[in-house]
Structure formats: C-alpha cells, structure tokens
Amino acid sequence: MAVLLCSADTAAGQASLIPKSGPSAYGTARAVPVGRGPLAAAQGADGRLYLAVSVSDEVLVLDPDGTPRGRVRVGWAPRCLAPVPGTPFLLVSNAGSDSVSVVDTSGAREVARVAVGREPGAIAVSPDGCGAVVCERGAGAVAVLDLSGLARDGRVGLAARIALGSAHVQPRAVALSGARALVACARLDVLPVVHIEGGRVEERVRLPVAGAAPAGVAVTGEGDYALVTLERIGALAVVDLLEWTVTRLVPLGARPRGLVIDPADTTVYCALAGQRALAVVHLDGVDLSTTDGRPQFEEISVGAGPSSVALARVDDPAV
C-alpha cells in the first residue's frame, strides 16, 4: 500500500496531493481547488479525504485522485478534523460556533454536535477511539471528550475542561502519548503536558527559545520523543518524553506549522507556511537524544500558505 500526502494550502484555496511510493520517491503534486480557507485534512474510514474548509463552513469530500465527492455542512469556521478509529466517524472542530461536529462518513452527514469552549481547533483521538482532546484556542484550555458511546448510540460527551494557564496562551496543536496530552501553545515558552484522567498539567517542558510560537506537535512511533514546530524561528524542537527536556533543534524553513510522521520510514513532513513547501526530514538512523549527526532534509513544492499536512494510505501508488 502506498502513501498519499495531502497539504492544505490555505492561501491558495487548494489541496496538494503528492503520491509517495517509497523513501524520497514522490510523484508530481496534483493541485485540487477546494474553496477559500482549507485548514486541515484527514482520511476517513472509507479511504476518502476530508478537508475542513473554514470560509464555507463545510467539509469537502475527495477521492484520493482528487475527484470531489460532495460536501458536508458543519458548524461555523471548521478548523480541524480527526477520524475516530474503528468507526466511520470524523470529529470536526468548529472554531466559529464553539462546538465539535460528528460526521458519519458512511452517509456523508453530520449526526451530532457537542458544545465545547471558545474557538476549538486541533483534535487528537485516542487509538482505541474512546476519547479525544480538543484545543480551545480562545479559552487557553483543552476539552476532553468521552467517545465511548459513539459507536453504540452516537453519543459524545464533554468529560472535562483543563486550563493550561491564562485564557490567552492560544493552544494550537495537541498530540497524545499514552495517558498524557502534549499541547503546543503559541504564547507559551513551555510545552504543557496534561494528565488526561487526572485533569491537570503535570509537566511544563521549557522550550529553548523565548517567543518561538509553537505551532505543531507530533509523537514519534516509539513514543520516546515529541517533535514541536517553532514557527517564529523556523525550527523543530525534539523533546525527550522520559526526561522532559529538549535534546536538539532541527532547522526546517520559514514558518513551520502542522506536521505528520510516516511511521513506515520515520520521515517527518511539515507545512512551511512561509515558502510554499513541505519540509521533509528523514529521521531514520538519527539519534534524537543528542546533537550528533544531521538528518537528511528536502522540500516538496505545494501551493501558497500551507497550514497542515496529512498522510493517507492508498492502494494505487500512482494516485
């Protein structure tokens, strides 16, 4: 099975679809017009791509080859979306209506909506599909959702809201590591580590540069490290999740934002909002615990102002 990269090119109003057949083996990017303000993409259980289009208050449905298959009306200004493992459902955060929509991909329709705090954004769903953490960008908090009843009767509950500091810290991205959530906040010089069941911030990892504007976060496949994009300095901070310290900085490019890791070859893909490109960082064989060695680096050209990038699995490597 091959990989398809999907870049949400916000300023260009398009999605860039890039087939990957192996390490550093990429096909020609296909630009698909999607409307004003695409912010995020995800693959549903049906294999199709779903894009949050903020200006039209919709989720656009695409086949992996870029063919449009419909639109799903959700709340105001959808910002992020995430599939719920083991179900046909997607969660969609609606920044303008302070809610999270549940979209049934089998029927391409919204089936539920739950109220959360102000300006929800990034979403991380647990591997078992029983819970999710949602960044409340306008409230300086995260919402914890109970998804245990979703597959049974379509219910989603708000289990807790956990403050990260003041209301102005602007949580922008979240990733899960076991029972913890790692939250990148644009106006914090630390990485808050939230104990989800305990409902508290249990660690604050000091980032190496003040005012660097953390924008994205992902956890490596082994769960040993978190990778945090620092938008203002164009770098990736590597965080040791045992020691809760930053071990190294990796240069990326202008204004790095959302990122994703291909677990098959530990390649990192990051949207560079300032230079119409995806940064590609090869971590295979790199010791992240030290500053020794230098990762291999390349770029893939996409449309203007990419905000995020997602991975999809496809049967045809030529798609």
UniProtKB/TrEMBL annotation:
Signal peptide: none annotated. It comes from the Bacteria. InterPro entries: Haem_d1_sf, Host-pathogen_enzymatic-act, WD40/YVTN_repeat-like_dom_sf, YVTN_b-propeller_repeat. PANTHER family: DIHYDRO-HEME D1 DEHYDROGENASE, PROTEIN NIRF. This is YncE family protein. It comes from Streptomyces subrutilus.
